[in-house]
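Notes to self, S-(+)-linalool synthase:
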Amino acid sequence: MAVYKSLSSLPSPLSNFHTEINADNRVIRPSLVACRTASQKWNILEKISSDPSKPHQMILHGRSIKDKFLKEYEQKVEDVRELLNSEKLENQIESLMLVDAIQRFGVDYHFQEEIEAVLRRHYMAATINVDGFTYYTLHDLSLCFRLFRQQGFCFPADIFDNFKGKDGTFEGKLKQDIRGLMELYEAAQLGLEGEDILDEAAKFSSQIVGNRLKHPYHKSIARFTAKKYIRDLQDIHGWEKTLKELAKMDYYVGQTAHQQELSQIFKWWKNLGLAEEFKKARNQPLKWYTWSMASLSDPSMSEQRLELTKSITFVYIIDDIFDLHGTPEELALFTHAVKRWDYAAMDMLPKSWKMCYKALLDTTNDIGSKIYKKYGYNPINSLKSAWASLCDAFLVEAKWFGSGNLPISNEYLENGKASSGAHVVLVHLFFLLGINGKTGDTFQLDDISELISSVAIILRLWDDFGSAKDEQQEGNDGSYIECYMKENPGSTIEIAREHAIDMISSEWKRLNKECFRLNQNLSISSFTKASLNLARMVPLMYSYDDNRRLPILEEYIKSTLFDDAFLEHHPILDKKQGT
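result:
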């Protein structure tokens, strides 16, 4: 179990709710979020008004998205759409480079059908004449492989045998092809279990270009890496300028939507009153919203982001209740009440817990009703079951840690898949995106169980891996790391952490397999992309520096919510030119 005695790097963005936490030796269990500790000054908070219900006090500065801007924005979308359909891009590699740039800029949600058509056309051409790949450069073949596999098109990994010498290893002369090696490294991130050649490709290319690719596209949030890509992309083919202009305008549209949603979350959270009732619990609506903001990048998915954030909020709060506010008997009562899902069950709960229980039922029932109004079915039974599973997992861990008897690592990890909160979040996400209705009941929750499992394991291991680094300094750890070390006497913390890293790598391959399988049906692609984004967000949430801060997460939030550097030279949005 983690015991934190230092200050947190992530306080609440609501200054009225800051709480002072004592070094009380409270037990902290790995969960959907990283360490839950006391409030500390976080520079990003200075950007947020003390009254977050007023979005104009954020970066909007009194501006609205003007009609002129919207007209120009819509025209840019159509210009890029025409580019995708243009006969001028019949050259396969150039059209694939355009698709790649669109995806890296995070504006691909505008062009899903066009991208599908382009990739399918080139995939059909490529599979008809496989021998043609003999003449492809390393860059071009790697790009084809990555884009086709991302889209769910079957493309064999052994195609890279063309770049091996007689000794069965990648040819030494490739070390001079930096551009090709960078794309090879990117392609290798989509490997599946058993594809040893992609493991070899990743190792070979990383030796040369590893430092240049700290954030490979497949495992990164596109909105986070887009700015650098916009700056680095050279105007070679003529379409880069138009695409860059669209990306910058789209960035503003997304930023505006996120700020307005964030203000609504602040208001909802304040009105809920749980921060006042549970003063030791985390109070971080900004961080909770960040999960949803990263997962659902399409600005039009405002309602889904808001409702998903509410479910994430309760994962945090219930987690804290189990850790900080209850006796074993009370935890069992709360779990039983959640399973009953009946307002009458409030009578058996302690006074303070009644508020949380009622808020959970109110919020989840409301989400179910909204899904019914939008898609014609109410998934409340599935949502209730997800919350019951979460509480069961929390209760199991509370018993383990309360007794001081840690389980074997596999048993811990199996339960940790549920206690991570990923299952609750992804079940809500599945229905909020209307997948059940869009696919005509073709896809059910059972069809995404393996995907959910992989995301949950990646989250749990990253959480435990990052926590263990800090917790070794404090002396106590209830993570997978400690379970593994207890199970393997003589192993060091370094060996245990290396084992966890290998497990995360293996789980990414399983996640790739599930996404590859599901992406063959376009109607579920929004869910697979959102699930991938959750997995991509995990390292940002758990990458602590030596001061136990989360600098990468801070950078992401600043960049996505508050940085308006891209807008300074836009003729409509430039603040210097008025509002």
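- The longest helix spans residues 240-272.
- The chain has 22 helices and no strands.
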